[in-house]
Design goal:
The structure holds two protein chains of two kinds. By secondary structure, chain A is mostly helical. Chain A contains 38 helices and four strands. Classes of the chains: A mainly alpha, B mainly alpha.
């Protein structure tokens, strides 16, 4: 199963890459549909090759990290049937879309999202680890958001996509909450383990709440009452997408989850009843809503809702629920997808989906008519079709399924009526200027035909499939219930056909929309009002809200936890306490902050802030942190330099003082915050030594080949964090240069600096540059065993680069984006230094050391540090090149 | 550094930083961000014992000081520097596009965007 998941994911990646590659000739050759077909076909081949024709029941365990819980994938016969269904329908749709999406670049939008969705849906079905299931659940929500909003120019499409995302997203969060709670109760994140412990789960309060939250997730996804309203809106998607998402796969995810947890829910007191009631309500409301529309696609959407209700209902009928569920879900997937696709052919060729506008298509589109007939026969459960098996089992097993009985009748009746109108009637029911059309290509009606045919072949295949039930039943199983169902369906169809045009009925059925509009209004108003209150269009209000909440929570927790300070001696003074030094630190900090607050211009403020920064340097130095002191001084100076360089961009008016009341209130928050954080830091200093540092101190000289433990941690032991950090720096550099592009003209700033007449910088500048460069390299090389390292070297070299860009003595032959290459080289070197470890089969970023000439030790952490240095230089150089352009930038 | 001294410095820096970040002018927000960043860095430092006269470099005879918070703070300083450059750049560009650095009026019954 892992192979199949990888195949679909690779298909998604390739489809994504194919978007940017190749010219029009490449695209015209239908590469993307071919890719998709290959993906699905190979997945099916792998599946049947691995398991043969007998349904597998297996667990695959993937351990992906040391010390975490391994990911588990579980296949059972029913789940395997669903997997095959997804793959088969996906294959059919890939062929279909080769012809459906022929407009320019449409398939580029479709296929990556389609393949991503398939990947996530497959993962959802087989995942056993609850968090993995949540991950795939949300992935399906996101990819279906893209797919539903496919025609993004239409307002209705965007709104429907957002609505679907909101409803299923909230459901997904609720489901996550339930999963976490269940993990608390049972001690394990695996669904199969939960099933084994279902008795304990059901007995505990926490378990029942967890089941409730999980059920919310399933109900939203499968559009059961009261969350049913997003499904009709999702019909704004193109027809193949509706065929895949809203008939065969995505909306089934909720009922699949319920199936997976069925045993637990069946033991819980109220849940089976509750689910049955909600399912029945969904069915009944959808039956009413069927009267409200003449759009055939919406009709199919409501019939899907009815079928989902039936699926939900079928889970709670007792012992054979799993088998019935399997038959029904596969049968529904096949015939509904066929119906949607065939409807798409009509839409594609005739240009309309309205049953009032289409007529007499039997002669003009015979192949499509054949497909419709085949699917309709599957729908009503003609003997020999898969649906028949499911229906018969369903009706015989429990009398409580009368809503399903009714729903199925309504579905068959309505579809029959619509088909009669579309295919047989000789004139439109309403006047229209609708023109006749011709049959679609075989690529369009072929796939749904195959799907329809599969509905009849499936029972044969299922015999071998080992579902644990004997499928070879005799004719005595054909009960009168099935016949009654057909009769009722015919009656409903006739009634529907005759009374459909009645205006009163349509108004009545539209009235059931109150829930949808009410909920939407409520959520909208809640969002607007809360935003107005919490943010009020001001950054400061937003920050204030966060801060007040944060402080309040801290104070509350402080008073609530008794054990925090009891019995702990609060260390206020240390052994090396020198009151003069400390008081002077505090005093100068206070002075500096006072000056910053009272500053009236940015430059004043930054100079005062640099004063404060200098005190921080001294604190670092006194606190035995030489690397920190060096870095802080470098950063402080460069901050000042960059503010000076950007100064011409800053608005020049002096700043006003604000209203006194707001000053006082903010001052109060600031005082509270300061005291809070000061207190927190006091409590931190309770001298609990970290466990890790003794390990690092022991291991650094031997494994890390260095005695500067800070540097060893940064570039060797915790190199992955540093890699993330330098990526942030690269992003910052590119952001800055993009934002400031073209704002600085070529020579102006240099002239400003040198026009003051003082020759010092011109004379001593070059000397300074070489000294700085030498220092940078020196600090870089000694960083592993003495204060220094890549960051500090990079900062020094950055200052040198700034001077190079500034001074007239240096001929700047570098291109306008020289430092982009420096940045790229830095990241590449850092990555390569980590990948080298793969050559000796160690993990990414393991440090490897060799000795040259007997005394010179070289290692990959040095390479990594060099990459870091390049990036810091690149950051400073890149931003400075914006300010001192070396060439005219167009 | 004694814990009390460090805590006082942190308190002052944090209070000033927050006060400035709540001002309705972008320049003061930037200054507040710088002070705030310094406060947080010092706070990470205070999580372990801050001793005077020792060193994170393992020479013989010197009690090693705690290197792990120092490594974390180093990355924090550099990232704060990068962020500050970006804020200044975006603010500068906004100013060039005639967008004021002062905060707009508070909303009354403004409808959502």
């Amino acid at each position: 199963m892992t192979i199949i998941l990888s195949i679909t994911f690779l298909g998604f990646l390739f489809a994504l890459m194919a978007r940017g590659v190749g010219g029009d000739a490449f695209r015209g050759k239908r590469v993307l549909p071919a890719l998709s077909i290959i993906t699905f076909a190979s997945s099916l081949l792998v599946f049947f090759g691995q398991y043969g024709l007998v349904a597998p029941e297996m667990t695959e365990v993937l351990s992906w990290t040391m010390g975490g819980s391994p990911l588990r994938l579980v296949l059972s016969p029913v789940l395997a049937s669903i997997v095959v269904l997804i793959l088969v329908v996906g294959l059919a749709i890939s062929v279909y879309c080769a012809s459906y999406f022929h407009q320019y670049r449409e398939d580029e939008k479709f296929f990556p999202a389609f393949l991503l969705f398939t990947f996530s849906m497959l993962g959802l079905v087989v995942a056993d680890h609850s968090l993995l299931l949540f991950l795939f659940w949300e992935l399906t929500s996101i990819s279906s958001f893209y797919l539903i909003g496919f025609y993004g120019q239409k307002d209705s499409a965007r709104r429907s996509a957002v609505q679907a995302l909101l409803v299923t997203g909230v459901g997904g969060l609720s489901m996550l909450l339930g999963f976490v709670m269940l993990q608390r109760v049972t001690g394990s994140p695996y669904l199969s383990v939960w099933f084994q412990q279902s008795f304990e789960v059901v007995k505990s309060d926490l378990g029942l709440w967890a089941l409730f939250f999980i059920s919310l997730g399933a109900l939203t996804k499968s559009a059961q009452f009261p969350f049913h309203f997003w499904l009709p809106g999702a019909m704004a998607a193109p027809t193949p997408i509706s065929a895949y998402l809203h008939s065969a796969t995505m909306v089934k995810a909720g009922v699949i989850l319920l199936y997976k947890m069925q045993e637990i829910y069946a033991m819980a007191p109220w849940f089976p009843l509750g689910f049955s009631i909600l399912a029945s309500l969904t069915i009944l409301i959808s039956c009413v809503r069927l009267f409200s529309t003449s759009d055939f696609k919406l009709t199919l959407a409501y019939t899907t809702l009815i079928s989902l209700g039936i699926l939900n209902l079928s889970l709670w009928i007792g012992e054979m629920a799993g088998v019935v569920f399997c038959f029904l879900i596969v049968a529904h997937g096949l015939y509904k997808a066929a119906l949607f696709l065939a409807l798409g052919v009509i839409d594609h060729e005739a240009g309309s989906r309205d049953v009032f506008e289409l007529f007499g298509l039997r002669k003009k589109m015979p192949a499509t008519f054949l497909v419709f007939t085949l699917s309709f026969l599957a729908l009503i459960g003609v003997p020999g079709s898969l649906n028949a098996l499911g229906k018969e089992q369903l009706f015989q097993l429990s009398p409580n399924v009368w809503p399903a009985f009714f729903g199925l009748s309504v579905v068959s009746g309505v579809v029959l009526s619509a088909m009669y109108t579309v295919f047989f009637s000789q004139s439109p029911r309403r006047k229209s200027e609708f023109q006749a059309c011709k049959e679609g290509s075989i690529l369009l009606w072929g796939p749904p035909l195959c799907l329809g045919a599969l509905s009849f072949l499936a029972p044969v295949l299922f015999e071998k499939w080992n579902l644990g039930v004997n499928l070879v039943e005799g004719p005595e199983q054909r009960s009168w219930l099935g016949l009654g169902n057909w009769g009722l369906g015919l009656g409903v169809g006739v009634v529907f056909h005759l009374f459909f045009n009645s205006v009163k009925l349509r108004f009545f059925s539209r009235g059931t929309d109150w829930l949808n509009s009410g909920l939407t209004w409520f959520i909208d108003t809640l969002a607007v009002k809360s935003r107005q209150f919490l943010q009020a269009n001001q950054l400061s209000t937003h920050i204030k809200t966060i801060l007040i909440f944060w402080f309040g929570l801290n104070i509350y927790l402080f008073f609530k936890s008794e054990s925090l300070l009891k019995g702990q001696k609060l260390y206020l003074f240390s052994e090396d306490f020198n009151p003069w030094i400390e008081l002077s630190f505090i005093f100068i900090t206070a002075l500096g902050c006072f000056l910053v607050i009272r500053s009236k211009k940015l430059l004043e403020g930054v100079i005062a802030a640099s004063l404060v920064g200098l005190i921080v340097v001294f604190i670092f130095a006194r606190g035995s942190s030489p690397d920190l002191a060096l870095t802080q001084i470098g950063v402080e100076s460069l901050t000042l330099v960059f503010v000076l360089l950007f100064l011409k961009l800053v608005p020049t008016e002096p700043w006003r003082t604000d209203r006194l009341s707001s000053q006082q209130f903010d001052g109060l928050i600031a005082v509270v915050g300061g005291l809070l954080l000061g207190g927190l830091s006091l409590m931190q200093g309770l001298r609990v030594p970290s466990q890790l540092i003794s390990y690092f101190n022991d291991v650094a000289p031997s494994l890390g080949q260095g005695i500067n433990v800070v540097n060893v941690i940064l570039v060797d032991f915790r190199a992955l964090d540093t890699l993330g950090e330098i990526t942030v720096l690269v992003i910052a550099a590119f952001c800055t240069s993009l934002v400031l592009a073209g704002l600085f003209s070529k020579q102006s700033l240099r002239e400003d600096i040198f026009s003051s007449g003082k020759p010092n910088l011109k004379v001593f500048g070059p000397i300074l540059v070489f000294v700085l460069l030498g220092l940078a390299i020196y600090f870089y090389f000694r960083g592993h065993n003495a204060p220094g390292g890549g960051f500090i070297g990079g900062l020094l070299a950055g200052v040198a680069v700034l001077l190079i860009l500034l001074l007239p003595q240096f001929k700047r032959k570098m291109t306008a984006n020289f430092f982009s290459f420096v940045l790229a080289a830095g990241i590449l070197i850092a990555f390569i230094s980590g990948i080298l470890a793969f050559a000796v089969q160690k993990q990414f970023l393991t440090g490897l050391w060799t000795t040259l000439f007997g005394f010179l030790s070289l290692g990959t952490p040095m390479l990594f540090d060099f990459g870091v240095m390049l990036i810091v230089v690149g950051l400073i150089g890149h931003v400075s090149q914006v300010v001192f352009p070396t060439k005219e930038m167009s | 550094m004694s814990p009390l001294g460090l805590a006082s410095v942190i308190a002052i820096l944090f209070g000033s930083g927050i006060y400035l970040m709540l001002r309705p002018h972008l320049g003061k927000v930037v200054l507040g961000f710088i002070l705030f960043g310094n406060a947080i860095n010092l706070m990470i430092l205070s999580s372990q014992k801050v001793s005077v006269g020792s060193s994170p470099i393992l020479h013989e005879g010197i009690v090693p000081s705690d290197a792990l918070p120092q490594a974390l703070i180093l990355t924090a300083i550099v990232i704060g520097f990068g962020m500050m450059i970006v804020i200044l750049a975006v603010g500068g560009r906004a100013s060039k596009e005639k967008l004021s650095w002062d905060s707009p009026e508070k909303t009354g019954e403004k409808s959502h965007d």
